[in-house]
Amino acid sequence: GAGVSQSPRYKVAKRGQDVALRCDPISGHVSLFWYQQALGQGPEFLTYFQNEAQLDKSGLPSDRFFAERPEGSVSTLKIQRTQQEDSAVYLCASSLGTAGKQFFGPGTRLTVL
Amino acid sequence: DQQVKQNSPSLSVQEGRISILNCDYTNSMFDYFLWYKKYPAEGPTFLISISSIKDKNEDGRFTVFLNKSAKHLSLHIVPSQPGDSAVYFCAASALNNNDMRFGAGTRLTVKP
User: Fold this and answer.
1) For all residues of chain A together, what is the average pLDDT?
2) What is the mean pLDDT of residues A93-109?
């Protein structure tokens, strides 16, 4: 595809449910990033993959958050036992190399009731 | 800790005039700076960047200025157009570090 795509675009979950958010990066992009954006704030780093290797997960807020990129392309961000404070837009970005500008997807807006 | 700060949450300018968006950072290890533009319901799109070896980078109507001693950068848009109305995010990273830090954004409104 021409850009980074994410699905679903909107997700409503009841507190305690598990959710899975998908990211399709730009084909051939080595690096993939997940960000969490709360209302009125800038994106905050969650985790980073270089190909299939998760090199940095320092931004994941708790052990309920888990990300994977098993074949070095599509990535999934999973949130277990969702809480209201998890409500945010989750952005995925990819970049061609290991540094430099990142291309963002449209995000998934998660609302936990 | 807010390592990248955009202290103006909003800015309104008249079409044809200059828009100046400001950004301050605290981490002296940052050496690569970017501006992203975001429309509602879309992800941020890359606008312009600058590395710490330069103090100015220009691309059409957009110019980014970097003042390393003041840990300050700014984005100038001239002339401003109504289509420039969006939220602008400043971001910073170290070239050997993939942890990019974003400011909270400035909402620019360009009035016709």
Assistant:
1) 94
2) 89
Dihedral over Cα of B1, B7, B12, B16: its sign: negative
- pLDDT band per the 50, 70, 90 thresholds, residue B97: low
Least Cα distance to A18 among A86, A77, A89, A78 occurs for: A78
Distance between CA atoms of residues A50 and A33, nearest Å: 9
The pair of structure tokens assigned to B16 is 């044809």
Which tokens go with B109? 């409104």
Residue range B41-87, pLDDT digits in tens: 899 999 999 999 999 999 999 999 999 999 999 999 999 999 999 99
pLDDT for A45 beyond 80: yes
Rounded Cα–Cα distance for residues B84 and B11 (Å): 12
Residue A51: CB atoms within 10 A of its CB come to 15
> Strand, helix or coil at A42?
coil
Does the pLDDT at position A53 exceed 90? yes
Q: Report whether A24 contacts A74 (CB < 8 A).
A: yes
Look at B49 and A101 and tell me if their CB atoms are within 8 Å: yes
Q: A56 vs B99: CB contact, 8 Å cut-off?
A: yes
Interface test with B, best of A95, A101, A108 (most B CBs within 10 A): A101
Q: Tell if the CB–CB gap between A42 and B32 is shorter than 8 Å.
A: no
Contact status of B36 with chain A (Cβ, < 8 Å) = yes
By CA distance, what is A90's nearest residue in B? Answer: B43
